[in-house]
Amino acid sequence: MIPYELKWTMKSGSDAFSRKLGTYLPLDADELGILQRLANPRTIFSAGREIAQEGQNDHAAYILHDGWACSYKRLHDGGRQVINIQIPGDFLGLRSLLLRSSDQNLVALTPVEVSQVYPERLLEMFSTAPRLAMAWLWAASRDEAMIVEHLVSLGRRDALARTAHFFLELGARMKLIERGTADGYACPLSQSMLADALGITAIHLNRVLRQLRESGLLVFRDSTVTFLDRKRLAEIADFDLSYLDHGTAAKD
User: Fold this and answer.
1) What is the pTM assigned to this prediction?
2) Share of the chain above pLDDT 70, in %
3) Does residue 250 belong to any structural domain of this protein?
């Protein structure tokens, strides 16, 4: 088991976060250096650990460099609604950074590597590197666009279309950071977590996954998503990549 809150420093190279920001605009050596300093030191959380809790006063935002995490709200009856699944290159808790307390729970789904970001560090970066500030705001705006699309899925798409849309969106996000291909990607989500993200029961999810498999559209097995017919899947889900603002990065 990876120890809780083991700190280390990245010595060189870029990661998924730099690659994602580089989608918005090419980053020069100075800007990459600023991002590298912002990404240090790193902290490792083991799978299942809470990174932040709803109502927590002393909270920061995080950059997720490796591993998978999720943000969720806990309900009074003990249930939960997953707000978003975070993959390498994503923000954790950025939306509530300037609030007095965190408005969501953040949990590591796998061992994760993160770096903490406090408002002071952001202000320093924004003042010294305005192009990076624009790229940062682009990434935050893109995250908000995904939340809007998730709301549409929960309110208007049936379970089959909702599930198809979820897997297609994850596939586009993974391909952008070079951790997936047009054919599929590794996906460590449990069916319980996936059901909570989709707002359906685990039993209903099993039926949907079987329908997708038997229809020759998609297979989710052994923590791997395999696209069998992405074109038909996109038609069923009414999936339009434009809200992710990837340009041509994930269309192939």
Assistant:
1) 0.88
2) 89
3) no
